[in-house]
Each structure stands twice: as C-alpha cells, then as structure tokens.
Amino acid sequence: MKDLFSIGELANYQKISKQTLIYYDKIGLFCPAFVDPDTGYRYYSAGQIDRLDTILMMKKIGFSLKEIKEHMKTYTIDSSLLLLQRQLAVMERQIQELQILKSRLQHRCKQLENARDYMKTSTAVVTETVKEQYLLVCPVDAPFTMLEISIATKKCFADAFQRQLPVYFQCGVIVPLQRIREGRCTEASAAFLPIEKTDQTSELLRMPAGTCVCTCHVGDYLSIGPAYDRLLRYCETNDLEILSDSYEFCVNDYLTTYDEKEYVTKIMLYVRRRKSPR
Length: 278
Hints:
The protein is an alpha+beta fold. The protein is 42% helix and 23% strand. The chain has 2 domains: 4-72, Multidrug-efflux Transporter Regulator, Chain: A, Domain 2 (Orthogonal Bundle); 98-273, Regulatory factor, effector binding domain (Multidrug-efflux Transporter 1 Regulator Bmrr, Chain A). It has 8 helices and 12 strands. The strands form 2 sheets. Strands 4, 5, 6, 7, 8, 9, 10, 11 and 12 form a 9-stranded antiparallel sheet that branches. The chain has a 3-stranded antiparallel sheet with strand order 1-3-2.
C-alpha cells in the first residue's frame, strides 16, 4: 500500500523478526497503523519508524517491555532524563557486580592452574606464611558424614547468594585436631566459603596471618587419611607444635570436575616452633 510498510519490510529495515512485531502488537506496545480486514496483514506508517527506534533503543539499554510501554504513553524531556538517570544507576551496580564476578572467576582460574602443580607434588609437605583471610562458616551436623558436610556447604552457598555476599567460588571444611589425631579426619565440624572482609555480615571466621604447614590430597575425599599422616609426621619430625584445627580448601572439586580422581584438597594447620626445654 502507498506510504505504508508491510510487516516484512519493517522487520527487514530494523533487522528484527516479524514475530517480534506481532508480539509488540499483541501486548499493545507497537501496533500497526492499518490492518487489512480481508487478509489480516499489518501495515505501518513512516511516522511509526521513529517510535520503533525508541522502543528498540530502550530495550537495548535494558528496560523491560512493560517499562517501555508505560514510559511511552506520554513522555517528555524531563521524564526521559529521569528514567535514563535511574537506568544509569542500575548499570553502575551491574558493572560493579560484574567486576566482582570477574575477580572471582580469575581467582578460580588461578586455582585450577595451581591444581595441576599440586597433582605433581601431592606428597610434599611445606611450610607457608599465610595472609589473613575470612571465612563464611556453617556448622556440620552429627554424625559428620559426607552427607552432612554436603548439606552444610550448600547452606553456605545459598546464604551467600541470597545475601549477595562477596564469597569466592571455592569451598572447604574445618576438621578438629582431636578428630584428626583419633583417625577421624573426614568428620568435619564446619563447612566454609572464603569471603572478602565485609560489613554485610558479622558471621565471619577470621583466619589470622601466620605460619602453616600444608600438603595436598589428590583423589576422593574419603581417602584423605594419608595426607594427615604426612602432616603429623612432618610436625613431629621438625619439632613443630600444632596450634589449630585443620583448614581444608577444595582446589579442584565437584564444581570443576566430575572425576573424583582429579579432586585436589589443600590442607593447612597453623604451627609454631616448639620452645626448647630449659
């Protein structure tokens, strides 16, 4: 028709699908100027193209179709400026969240790169000077089996995601020293997630800066016993006093591999040199 565009022509000009225009018509957002009563074909006027440009631009910026429809009922320079300023604030928050996610992913990638080295030297015991860090902790219920540990870990993640806490994409557990000495080294008392220090919650456990002995266990968790035997022997041989429960950090686990043979767990115990007897 003269001075009108078919739905196919308009879709081609705007590089969108005809189904999109049909849906916009259905929800009352962008309706055709004329519908042929015989064929049902939709036609649009030249003046409508500017309105469609506005809709597509707002959608690209991030507005919902509902927000766009409400705004375009009647809009002025003032209402548009206010709406765009609000959306700019939303974008700033999204950028900050993405920056945090980016740093978490970079941290996780670094861990996986280290995991390969840990696999090669899994029987080594080393002494490390560790920096202060914080943990979001959830207690593990009795009888402290893998089921209870898994539930506690999932509670930690659920709590962190719900409250948007700045946790890293890593988990771990705390095993009491007494249980380790009794050979009950898989009976963790708490699950944790490493987290940045934050005022969003007071439920953080502080791991102080200090000296730790560390070793890695490669393989399924239930076979971790020999790694603890290595640590205890090392401390005894090198006259080191153990000062803490064990902190186990999952370097490679179910989050990044399906094969338990590839699991890597880093074990840390705070220590100090025994005082020589007078």
